[in-house]
Predict the structure.
Amino acid sequence: KMKSVMLKSLIVASAITLSGSLFARDDRNMYPLSDALNTPAAKEKLDPNIALYFGKQRHPAIKESLGEWKTNKKTNAFNKTDKEACEWVFLSAVLELQERAAKEGGNAVVEIKSNYKNSERSSETEYMCGNGAVMSGVALKGKVVKLAK
């Protein structure tokens, strides 16, 4: 009788664990920077006076370094494809970097890297986005600088 109760408990516990893991999605995907930077929202909202350089992209000489900053943005992924949600939240993260640059007196953010859940990924062409069942997230890290004109 005791073995039967323990076996049933084990089966129920296993079923709960398995069903939970089916819903707890945590995908990490790489998406093209060019797609995200060329959405209508990005073209409308990005500040053309604060340049963005990803990974090891070449840029003019740095006149002054104003510190490294991090962003960590999330968005509701409801009724959006993973890519649409990621492009939206990526724009939010990049805008935060631009706002920081403006606040610090910089005119560019260089060496921008993905830093989702502290998993750093540097790329000149892609960014990392985390897609869950209901949320998507992008975390970026970049150096705010004054570039020589």
